[in-house]
Amino acid sequence: MHRIKNILVALSLVTAFGFTNASVSAPGSGLPNVVSVDPGLVKQGDTVLVTVGLDSAPDTDETITISSSNSSCFSSLPSTVTALQGETSVSFYATISATAYGMPTVSASAQGLSVMSNPIPIQ
């Protein structure tokens, strides 16, 4: 009941102040809010660590859809990952393909919200 009341209050404030691009999420929703790739500069064949940060720890396990702006740049990239209940991030490894070029990005999506990494320069 408190969660519904908090959302209604937040929506009322959004409406009252005329915000048109506002996003309101329930506490414990675990929505992705940042995608980081380490290292940020890679070579063909490198393995990178991708971390998806969440806006809050989800109340239940949250499935996050993973995609890339250029899937041919990755020889391995999971299509989904699971953010476990109570965690504020999820990390996984991805491998840059031997024929990759350009500056792909990695995106994470859940509950209709999608966030994208910075472009990843491939040397």
- The total count of helices amounts to 1
Shape field: elongated
Sheet having the most strands? 4 strands, antiparallel
H/E series: HEEEEEEEE
Q: How many domains make up the 3D coordinates?
A: 1
The count of strands amounts to 8
- CATH architectural grouping: Sandwich
- The structural class is mainly beta
Radius of gyration: 17 Å
* Largest sheet strand order: 1-2-6-4
Q: Which ranges are low-confidence, i.e. pLDDT below 50, for 5 or more consecutive residues? A: 1-25
CATH topology: Immunoglobulin-like
Terminal Cα span: 53 Å
What is the residue-mean pLDDT, rounded to a whole number? 83
For this structure, what is the CATH homologous superfamily?
Immunoglobulins
Determine and state the CATH class: Mainly Beta
Task: Explain what the structure shows.
This protein has 123 residues and is mainly β. The chain has one helix at residues 2-16; strands at 32-38, 47-54, 62-68, 74-76, 80-83, 89-96, 106-110, 113-116. It has a single domain, classed as Sandwich (Immunoglobulin-like). It is built from one helix and eight strands.
